[in-house]
Amino acid sequence: MTELLEKVKAGADFGEVAKKHSDDPASGAQGGSLGEFPKGTMVSAFESALDKLEIGGISEPVLTPFGYHIIKLDDRKEERIKPLEEVREQVIQSLKQIKARQKVRRTARHIHQEAEKSGDLKTVAEKYQVQATISEFFSREKHNLPEIGAQPQFFNTAFSMDKNQVSQPINTPEASFILKLSDTKEAHIPELQEVKKTVEQALTEKVNEELTSTKFKELEQKLKQEKDLGKIIEGLDLSVKHTPFFSMTDSIPGIGNIKQIKEIALAMKVGDTDSTKIRNRFYLFKRTGKEEAGEPDKESEQKIIKQIKKEKSQQMFQEWVDNIKDRSDIMIDKTLM
């Protein structure tokens, strides 16, 4: 991530770098462009970094629940209500999409009603000029069905059905699906040759993580005694980076907007050292300075209040989600992780 940031700051085309390296297939194909979006659309860490950018500016890596991001601000426009003439075509297209979706869902209901009676989903689908396909066998953990994509509801339904049962229509923003469970296959332990590459990769990753973790523990012990980051990493392929002053609302350049690190760093006294591991990344740090915050101006104060309210609402939402998870049976789609 740091290498990519250095490339774009050195003048590399941001769009081309995004196309080549972005993990987001949608925005990556568009050169990293997210288009125009209103304030409050993105998660707080992303928006906090965005607020600090001038037009044309590029952020340090920002960590959100979706991963790391490098943000470039192309333009900023004042909020306004667009006149009808400006959005007429957009409204027309939106209404067409709604009508098309309604038509698809009506057709899906008719197919379901008839197929449930006859038991012949393929024939009924063809009657309504809808394609019926038979998938390969798939499991809860591994299901590569490109024509379906990432649709947890589809797979949750599939694994809750009885043989020859026809499902209710499964409606998503992109499509509607009706399933018939034709056959099942007992789970089995695959032959080594089938999973050899996967096993080798997992083993390599585990060994690398264990070696890194062991070395990190050694450095932690040295740091408690030496207090000099430069000395304890001598001879290692590591470097010491210095950050500017930051607050709890800032994204830390080179690290991102990681709450745990900011909490540890700001609780330390000048000269103190500490360490932590977050998302398989290891951090050793030393606090070298402190700057008292001045009184914020009115605009900054309002931004801070708005940011805190937003973070509180996100925290409440996350607590609600966690509560729902605790009371639910959940199938984890490992192909998306």
Task: Write up what this structure looks like.
This protein has four domains: 2-69, Chitinase A, domain 3 (Roll), CATH 3.10.50.40; 85-177, no CATH class; 193-286, no CATH class; 298-336. It is globular, with a radius of gyration of 26 Å. With 337 residues, the protein is mainly α. Helix 5 (84-118) crosses helix 6 (121-127). It has helices at 2-9, 14-21, 25-29, 44-51, 84-118, 121-127, 152-158, 192-226, 229-232, 259-267, 298-326; strands spanning 62-64, 67-69, 170-171, 176-177, 273-278, 281-286.
Number of domains: 4
Termini gap:
19 Å
Question: Strand sequence of the main sheet, in spatial order?
Answer: 1-2
Overall number of strands: 6
Radius of gyration: 26 Å
| Contiguous uncertain segments of 5+ residues | none
The helix tally amounts to 11
> What is the string of SSEs from the N terminus onward?
HHHHEEHHHEEHHHEEH
Return the average pLDDT rounded to an integer: 83
Strand content of the residues, in percent?
Answer: 5-15%
Q: Name the shape in a single word.
A: globular
Q: Can you summarize the main beta sheet?
A: 2 strands, antiparallel
Question: From the helix content, strand content and strand pairing, which structural class follows?
Answer: mainly alpha
Topology at a glance:
Layout: H1 2-9, H2 14-21, H3 25-29, H4 44-51, E1 62-64, E2 67-69, H5 84-118, H6 121-127, H7 152-158, E3 170-171, E4 176-177, H8 192-226, H9 229-232, H10 259-267, E5 273-278, E6 281-286, H11 298-326
Antiparallel strand pairs: 1-2, 3-4, 5-6
Helix pairs in contact: 5-6
